[in-house]
């Protein structure tokens, strides 16, 4: 088995390294394929082959007014930038207050050429301009360049930070200078294999993978894989205290821990695959990629890890080597918890539920929708440029709406668009064949609610002409509505999948229902508790897909620990004994999983930080409150009814 995995790792390594080459990050920003904005974009690209080119918007400002020297410098830039533009660079557009000039032009060439041009333009704006003239590059070119710069090398950094966090926590957990290396090595191999499989499917089978999905893949493999390792090694250590033969000890440990690990992996994988029914592109892409990661972690931890542990022998546990007949353990604290829960289970679960409900109220202080200037955790050029444009021009100048219509009805649509409240200017139609594209500049910032309201009015005004309204704001509006639809569909679907798995695993109906209610309450409490952290960090406005993504992870991963506890309770025929025997390992697993998700905070995107904070807080709540107090108390308080209709003492 070890040799098989060594060969597999050798084959997988070069493929895993190539994963970034097949990323398609358009799904992170493009509108859902069923939306009007996407259909408008497709029609524009059919009529104008260069319509998907990045647009560079260079803005120049000076307090007190643009000088002649500034105009000369801008004109020199215009001449210089012409070699990057598709049809030259139009003359600079002055602001009404006389304090700004703006150059806007699409970039020519393939994506690599456009990326290189963006870098050159940004360098030119940073050097050689007259003193006191503030410059910035925004538009889609500026935003794309900022994303590339921000994440350059971040995939490696995320792996290193995650591995370091896991290594430290395993070292603390096992208090052994050697043992921690085995699960870390195994989870590293699993991560490589998962990345290789995703790469092959993306390259040859059309699987969509973006930056977000790749980052979550790394976190899930390390987090879930380490959890499975902790559970297996804990059972192995127990069996080593019963059996002299380590092969027999591992056989027993694997047989007894496998059902819980398999149920956990199945729960998370199937819940993730529910995302295939999402409308939002980035959400749909995340599901299968993350499910592959869970599958790789499950297979590695139930085949490679046991083989490595058996090959190496008992000395791995040094200096606390388990011996036959040794009854020492770390359960004294958990014995006290079990006695506390057992004395008054009704009061324990009732007071715990009230506390969690109180925490959940904090979620009301959060809002949905991240403004463009808060997308990154630090200041970047495209955000600075957007702000400068908004200060001196109509706020929607850098991102006008595109109205796409048959060329024969262009004049009718222009007249209708000019009468829409919130549209400050309507440009001349661009015609190609039988398609006309009419730019409509909005009065309000493109990421504002007011701008979205204008899009609705614009769509109503041109209704009946066959026109489609697209552009950045329209795409944002359609994305928000698709997210709302995904929430309504996927939340009950995910809960249903988890419920069915729990019914099959526990052979009961009451227990799964109560467990589902507990994880929903846990999620609400996590969102409320995380709200305090996000307010302190200055990011209380959530990206729209974060609500669904965090719900999925906290429900699927949170129920994992309950699965570990309840399967042990069936085996021990006692919830209190199960709480004692699993207390240390499940708590360690929760801390590891929370820490791995917290590693997402090293990424410079606000949605990644929000995902890391909410899931980390939620996992800790589930580990220390829900699984330790609420669920055991519920099980003890309801007694045999908890396991209905099965018969369980």
Automatic annotation (TrEMBL):
Key words of the record: Cell membrane, Membrane, Transmembrane, Transmembrane helix
Source taxon at top rank: Bacteria
Annotated SSD domain residues: 179-311, 506-636
Cellular localization per UniProt: Cell membrane
PROSITE patterns in the cross-refs: SSD
Record Gene3D superfamilies: Multidrug efflux transporter AcrB transmembrane domain
Membrane topology of this protein: Multi-pass membrane protein
Family per similarity comment: Belongs to the resistance-nodulation-cell division (RND) (TC 2.A.6) family. MmpL subfamily.
InterPro entries associated with the record: MMPL_dom, Mycobact_MmpL, SSD
PANTHER family in the record: MEMBRANE PROTEIN MJ1562-RELATED, MEMBRANE PROTEIN YDGH-RELATED
One matching Pfam family: MMPL
Protein name: MMPL family transporter
Keyword Cytoplasm set for record: no
Record field: transmembrane: 156-174, 181-202, 214-236, 257-278, 290-317, 348-370, 489-506, 513-538, 544-566, 578-605, 611-636
